Amino acid sequence: MKSNIFSVNAEIKPNPIDIEDIVTEDIDLLSALPQSFVYETDLQNSLVRQAEELFPGYKIYGDSLEGIEYQIEGKRIDLLLENDTENKLLAIELKANVADFRVYGQISMYLNLLEDQFPDRIIEGIVIAGEIDNTLKMAARRDKAVKFKSYKMSLELLDEL
Fold it and tell me: Strand ranges (DSSP E) for the chain?
């Protein structure tokens, strides 16, 4: 039986990457990198840390942060904020990437459940996503209680010793 093994002598040389080439020639490649959170929990954690800064006058609902993953009628609201001064509750639905028309049914259900549980409060909702699809905007166009926000990621570098 003949053997089909071949021997190849080849010299492997490193191909150094020049950062200038990446910055100037591969802009299209860099723009293809994700500009949004991969996981909804990462977005949620970020919002929880900055809730009072991003929503002035609001704080996370409850004395023991029960507004995080707030449970109501077997459903889970990603984040529930309260503004005691204005007697408001703000339900926040998060989508790491694109939010489409299906999210409107979800946030509307949450608002109705909250209105039943807290009839003396003003109830509003926000959908926060990497991108708000036009179908969602059309679905909720007449509903003044629901707002939409997209997020933009950024990175802050701090000088260290």
Answer: 59-60, 68-72, 75-83, 88-99, 122-132, 146-150
